[in-house]
Amino acid sequence: MNGCGVRVPKFPKGTGLFPLPPAGRRLVAAALIPALLVSGCAGTGGYRQTYGSSSQARLAQLSEAYNRTLAEGCVAGAAVGGLAGGLIGRDWKGAVAGLLAGAALGCAAGSYMGNLQNNYAREEDRLNAVIIDIRRDNQSLAELIPVAQRVVEDNKARVAELNQAIAAGRISRAQAAGQLADLDASRSQLQATLGSAKKRLAEQHAAIAMNAHNADPQLANIAQEELARKEQQIQALESELNTLTQLRSVDRVG
Fold this sequence. Notes:
Elements: H1 22-41, H2 54-89, H3 92-107, H4 111-119, H5 123-167, H6 173-178, H7 181-211, H8 217-248
Helix pairs in contact: 1-2, 1-3, 2-3, 2-5, 2-7, 3-4, 5-7, 5-8, 7-8
């Protein structure tokens, strides 16, 4: 049983899916453990920080879930590669080779296109996969935007109260600024989320451009429509981030 409550099976030395000498077992474990930790523990969340509102706590949760997908793709790629290498090669060398290949595919620049090329032989199938991926992103962004809007409204009210308190002499400007840690955290979360969304958007643009030539024109149009929707949602989220930045730099509090 590991720290996340996941039962880890034990095999006699040199047995299991494939026999591994000590050196091979250490290499495989080194790659698999991060994958298990990400998939088994990250979902339980480390939301220990106390937020000023339920909206800010929800924004933190959604942002972390969205941003975690890139890191999960990296370690999960290594884990799956190692498993496949061991099953195919039936030895620890195959496992290690698979781990290295999986990690390279999951982490290297351009891996989005590499995954499509490896998993789908036909351009039309790749295009369908990209559409599914964009729709999943759009669903996540659609959930994030109204939460971000509520966070902005919460912080507008808070900044107004702090400015009144400063004007009345109840607190100093430094004290007021110290009470905006939640605003700063929300702003950082949105910045990270937007960075991930824009990076994925660029990869999806390139994937569609490369795989739309011989695909059904109707499918290519659907892909472009989903991309346009994602671009609009990114702009909406960026607008909320800009408002938070402006709130943080108001004369009295910022």
